[in-house]
Each structure stands twice: as structure tokens, then as C-alpha cells.
Amino acid sequence: MKKIALIFNIIFFSLTYAQDEINIGEKYSFYSQILKENREYWVYLPPEYEAQKEKYPVIYLLDGESNFYSLVAIQKAFTKGMYNYMPESVIVGIINTDRTRDLTPTQSSLKRDGKVFFENSGGAENFYNFLIEELKQNIEKTYRTNGYNIIVGHSFGGLFVLNTFVHHSSSFKSYVAIDPSIWWDNKKIYKDAKELLEKKNLKGFNLFIAMAKKETKANDEHSDAIRLFCTDLLDTSTRNNLRSKWKYYPEEDHGTVNMPGMYDAFKFIFKGITLPVKKIPQDPNLIEKYYKQLSEQLNFEFLPSETLINNLAEYSLSIGEMKAASKIIDYNLKNYPGNIVTDKIRAKIEQSQKENSQ
């Protein structure tokens, strides 16, 4: 009987355990009237999305099937606890159907070993129209978004990011190009950028470019084109008010540079967002000061998340700084009135104040 009971317990535990799932997103699809095909996309929502009222930035991620999990992991690492390195964001991973067609801005082929590659290229403008007129509009209708949009792409995706930045600069606020294929069509995107960017005022826009290690051969067209773009255009970008950065990764190749590139890109874009947590209980005004500086830097108003401020209020209360806790929670109630969790913390603070006064 003991053996039967043990087996039953093991089976019961296994069935119970199997019911638990770990989900980081949902898959969706719709028929694109622009592309004349079904397009799939994946969506990650911040953990507190359903419980809160705040609005979120949106990150549009190309090659979603390859990069979605990595970017979600970075965001989770950057937004846990009280030390935040980026705001909680909605992540939209765009799944490929014909990658070469969609991500290359011009029709250009390449012959190698007797074979012709990239014949079906040059559809980036059509894909851009799909992205802006269909997908982006659908996301903004469906989710609480705040209007701050970021686009991220690697390789051909990075080329698409740069082409969008050069020709449709106002479409996104921040652009992340990871080891982009600037060599495409005799470096046409570099030539376009050199001609067009000087004429634009790019205040409030951000561009980050990651470059993988240069290959051992003397002439590496891919790497040389990236370096030329960065040194000739980004290193002198103060003339058009663009906030930009590029970084060389000597230890990473074209396949591995994506993860560290995205990691550094978001630390660059949101530099200054991390609050001095230990100082907040002594000076709660630092919260508004830091976020004002961040908003000025990005030319866009950012507010700290409800969860972050609630955590700071709880922390201040835990170390006996009740006045600070009260001020911090009032700041949250001003930004996000009617939040149940925030109201409960306010009640806890008032109870502690009452007990201490007795």
C-alpha cells in the first residue's frame, strides 16, 4: 500500500506541476493588405500591465523569431527591483516571411560560386508601409502605449533600421542597428545618410550601432562599411543634434553580437534612468529630478513606473522613513490615481504613522 501511495503521490505531483506554465508573450497574426500575405507577430507585455493604468513605450523588434527571447530577458533583467535601467515596455517581435525582400531597400543581387543571391530584394519601403500603417496602428489601438517607439534590427534588419532612420527619421524615437549590412548595394545607405542627415534637426532622436569583430582577411567589406558610417557620420553628429553612440565588439562575431549589442543599446538610450535608491529616503525629490533630466535628454516626458515607486515607498517605510514614504506614495498617486496597490501602501503608511504617534 505504501508503494501504491507513493506512486499516486508522484503522479499527482507531476500532473499538478505540469499545469503550471511559463509564458513570456502571445502570438498573433493578420492579413496585410499592403504585403498581400499573412503576417505573424509576437507581443510581450510588462508583468503588471493588467493591474496598472500606465502607458508604455513600444519596441519593434525585427527577426522576432530569433531575437524575441533575448530582448525579453534583457528587459526583465533591466526592470527588476528598484534598480531600473530602462522603462517597462511592450515588445513586438515581427516574424519573417521573406527576409531579404522586406529588409533590403534596393534591388541588388550578388553572384558567388556561380550562384545568384538576393534576387528577390528591394522591398523595404513596402515593408515600412506595412510596419507603420498596419502593424503600428494595430498595436496602438490594442495596447496602452505612450508614443515613444524604438526599432531594433540585426544584419539586414540593421540595414532596414538605418534606412528608416535616414529616410523616415520621425517614425521612431530611438534606432538600434546591430552589425548592420551597410555594404548593401555599394554602401548606398551610407551615401544617402551623408547627403540627407546634415539637413535634419535630429534633437530628441537616438541611434546606437553595434559592430562585430572584423574578419581576419584584409578586406572585410561588411566591417569596413560599418566603421566608415560610424566614424564619418556618427562621430560628427553634433552638427545635427543627434544623440548617438557606436561600439566595437572585438570578442563577438556577426552571430553573437546581437545580445551584448541590445544590452548596451538600451543602457545608452536610457542612461540616467537609474535612481540612487539609497538616497531616496533622505531626499524623495531626487525621483522627480532624475526623471526630469531623463525627459529632457530624450525630449519626451517619462514617468517612473507605479511598481518602482511603490517599491521605493515600501523600502522607505521599512527603514523607518515614514515622511519620505508618504511623499513618495503621494507622487505615485498624483501620476496614477486610483491604483489599488498604491492605495494599500498609503493605508499602511498612515497606520504606521498613527501607531508611532501613540
From TrEMBL:
Source superkingdom: Bacteria
Sample GO molecular function, one term: hydrolase activity, acting on ester bonds
Upper classification of the organism: Bacteria, Pseudomonadati, Bacteroidota, Flavobacteriia, Flavobacteriales
Pfam families membership: Esterase
Signal peptide: none
Native source organism of the sequence: Apibacter adventoris
Protein name, UniProt field: Esterase
InterPro entries according to UniProt: AB_hydrolase_fold (IPR029058), Esterase-like (IPR000801), Siderophore_Hydrolase_D (IPR052558)
Similarity field: Belongs to the esterase D family.
PANTHER family noted in UniProt: SIDEROPHORE TRIACETYLFUSARININE C ESTERASE, SIDEROPHORE-DEGRADING ESTERASE (EUROFUNG)
Keywords: Hydrolase
